[in-house]
Design brief:
The chain has 374 residues and is of the alpha+beta class. The chain has three domains: 126 residues, no CATH class; 72 residues, Single alpha-helices involved in coiled-coils or other helix-helix interfaces (Up-down Bundle); 129 residues, 2-Layer Sandwich (Heat Shock Protein 90). It has eleven helices and five strands. Helix 9 packs antiparallel against helix 10. Its EC number is 2.7.13.3. InterPro entries: HATPase_C_sf, HATPase_dom, His_kinase_dom, Sensor_HK_TwoCompSys, Sig_transdc_His_kin_sub3_dim/P. One of its GO terms (cellular component) is membrane.
Length: 374
């Protein structure tokens, strides 16, 4: 999967701030006068950066250990170089707010307070200058900041859940409206025809013993009405089941956008002439893949790529989420595989090269072309 440098979901808000903070910290530590030799400073900075990198990518006990390591380095810097270097504790206070455990968050907050109190105690005999007085409110802010980050993350998570719930309610409403439409269409289209068949059948029963020619005419009318009813049923079923691929792509893009993702559609090659069944199966599989992205991926970007590969039409749904580490093949993936297998195609999911997951829908076209030629 390659080297992971920085979480994609945090780049927009934190990358520039973190880069600036770390550059300033390195510059100040290397330029300041101190009893620490240059190799020792470089070693401590390396440990600090390593702790920062570990805390950046984890939310379990590794995050807590990394925060404790980074705070220990800052404590040494505050004592042996300059107390205001404790300001850079905000780097770890921010990451601490994303800890999965309340206990880890509490221990980390206590460690931040211990860092400041240690430096205050060391300098208790030597009076702080007035410019160092700001460290007390800084300590309070750094201890409160993880809680603020946690509350903000919790609110965003609840907002995402609300969006998903609203989407589900919207889908239920659409399905309910569709059921009403189907019932109305069945009543309007088939009701009259079936009523006519009923009346003609009653007339045939009356004429069968008195006028066979008239009864035969009525039976022919019943046969004609039955054919009309069969044609109407086929038209209704076809209308209910057919899902155009282009419309489904636009619908999926809208749904992904509403879920807070940046959705992109990349059409490398236009799809060939597909049958109604093939388009519908691809549309339903694409819909299921998008649903899985919204529910499980935690992604911020999703790419839908349509292209031709080796006499096959291929749709790839690529996200930048957590990949398959915590996911398993469930009913959604099984449904996609069954639909594509019905078309002699395949549906597969795999980890992406740069993270996230890739769902590949592959529809072979050779068999379709041969049947079209026949």
């Amino acid at each position: 999967m390659g080297l992971r440098i920085y979480p994609k979901e945090q780049m927009k808000h934190y990358l520039i701030i973190d880069a600036i903070s770390i550059v300033f910290l390195i510059f100040i530590v290397l330029e300041a006068e101190s009893v620490l030799a240059l190799p020792v400073r470089l070693l401590l900075l390396a440990i600090f950066l390593f702790s920062y990198y570990i805390a950046l990518w984890h939310k379990d006990v590794r995050l807590l250990l990394a925060v404790l390591g980074g705070i220990s380095i800052l404590t040494v810097f505050g004592i042996l170089i300059n107390p205001p270097l404790l300001l850079f504790g905000f780097i770890f206070a921010d990451l601490l707010g994303r800890a999965a455990s309340h206990w880890h968050r509490g221990i980390g907050i206590a460690a931040i307070g211990g860092m400041f109190l240690t430096v205050f105690f060391i300098y208790s005999n030597a009076e702080f200058s007035w410019e160092h007085n700001f460290l007390l409110p800084v300590m309070i802010l750094q201890m409160v900041y993880p809680l603020l980050v946690y509350i903000r993350g919790k609110n965003l998570h609840l907002k995402d859940e609300l969006l998903v719930a609203n989407h589900q309610l919207e889908q239920q409403y659409i399905e309910e409206q569709e059921r009403h439409r189907i019932a109305r269409d069945l009543h309007d289209t088939l009701g009259q025809t079936l009523t006519m068949i009923k009346l003609k059948s009653e007339l045939s029963a009356k004429w069968i013993d008195h006028d066979k020619e008239q009864a035969k005419k009525e039976l022919l009318d019943i046969l004609s009405s039955s054919r009309i009813a069969l044609k109407q049923v086929r038209e209704l079923v076809s209308e209910m089941k057919f899902i155009p691929l282009d419309k489904e792509i636009e619908q999926v893009k809208t749904i992904l956008t509403q879920a807070g993702m940046e959705a992109t559609v990349e059409v490398v090659e236009q799809p060939p002439l597909l049958s109604s069944v093939e388009e519908t199966m691809l549309s339903l599989s694409l819909r299921e893949a998008a649903t899985n992205v919204i529910k499980h991926s935690e992604a911020t970007n999703c790419l839908i790529r349509l292209t031709m590969e080796n006499d096959a039409y291929v749709i790839r749904i690529v996200d930048d989420g957590i990949g398959l580490r915590q996911a398993s093949i469930g009913n959604g993936m099984q449904s996609m595989q069954e639909r594509m297998q019905a078309l002699l195609g395949t549906a597969a999911v795999a980890d992406g090269e740069g993270g996230g997951a890739v769902v590949t829908l592959r529809l072979p076209l050779r068999h379709h072309e041969r049947s079209a030629m026949k």
